[in-house]
Amino acid sequence: MPTARCWARVAPLVLFALPLAPANAVATTILINNGLAPPVASNVIDDATFAMEDVFVRNVGCDSTEPNQVSPCPAPGDSTTVGVESGAEIGSLSVFDASRAVVDGGSLGLLEARDAAHIALRDGSVVGSDLGAPVLRALFGGRIVMSGGFATAAEAQDGGELVVEGGQIAGELGSFSGARVTWRGGSVDQELVTRFEGELRVAGSDFAIDGVPTGLGEVAEASGFLSGTLASGETFDVFFRRTGIRGGTPGTLRLVPEPGSALLVGSGLALLAGRRRRGSTSGCG
Predict the structure, then answer these.
(1) What CA–CA distance (Å, rounded) separates 166 from 233?
(2) Which of 95, 159, 257, 280 would give a disulfide with 57, using CB separation of 3.0 to 4.6 Å?
(3) Residue 243: which residues within 8 A CB-CB, separation 6 or more?
(4) For the whole model, what pTM was predicted?
C-alpha cells in the first residue's frame, strides 16, 4: 500500500490500474432485497458478476422498485446480508435498514452504511474519483468496522459509528455531527478531523502532542501532531484538528486506554474494594 509520502504520486496510477468493466457489463442500479445471506449465490458479488454502478442492500420488506425511498422503510421485515469478494467491481455499495455487508475483496468507489446497517470491511479497496472525498461512510446510525483493506478517506456523521482496527486510510479520518469514530489499529496517513459535536477516540498509550507527553482524556488543543501507540501495538504520528461550523461547538478528540489496560484497571479496583469490604467485616466480637 502507498505511504503518505508517495500517495500523491501513485494515486493517479491506482485509479488507472483499477480493473476495467467487461465489455458486456451494465451500468445500472442493482437492489439486493431478499432477506437471505451468503453463501446464497444471488447475494455474493465477485468476479463472476458484471460491473455495476450502484448497489443498494435493503431489508426484505422495503420497496424493491425504489432503492432511495425514505428510510427506514415502514415495514422492513428480515434483513439481507451481502458478501463482496475478490474481483468484484462496484461503483457504490449502500446498505440500509438492518441489512449487512461483508467485504472481503474487490474494488469499490463508495461504501456506506445507513440506519441500523452494519458493514465489515476486511479486505479490498475503496477508492473514489475525488481523492479528497470520504469514500467509507457511516451515516444516520449505520456502523462500519474496518479491520483490513484500503480507503482513500473515511468518516462517520449524523449519529453513525466507524471503528478502525486495521487497514490503511490514505487521507482523512473524520467524525462529524454527533457521530463517533474509534481508531484502534491500522494507519491514517493524512489527518484526524472532528467537527461540530463529532467524537473521535484514539485507543492506545504513550500519547504525546507536538512531542510533549499527554495523559488520557479529552484533548484541549485545537490542532497539532498526535503520536503514540495504538491498541494494536502500531505506533503513529499524525496531524489532528478540531473545528466547529460557523462558530459552533467543535468536535471532541478523546484519548482512551487500550481495552486490555482498562480491563486491568477495573479488575484492580474491584479487587481492592473486595479486600476493603472483607477487612471491615472481620474483627473481634
Answers:
(1) 11
(2) 95
(3) 193, 194, 195, 196, 222, 250, 251
(4) 0.82
Residue 213 is classified by DSSP as E
Residue 232 near residue 187, CB atoms below 8 Å: no
138-161 burial by CB neighbour count: b if 16+ within 10 A, else e? bbbbbbbbbbbbbbbbbbbbeebb
104 in Cβ contact with 83 (< 8 Å): yes
C-alpha cell at 175: 467524525
Non-local CB neighbours of 269 within 8 Å, separated by 6+ positions: none
Strands 172-176 and 191-195: parallel
Can you say whether residue 199 is alpha, beta or left, with left for phi > 0 and alpha for psi between -120 and 50 degrees? beta
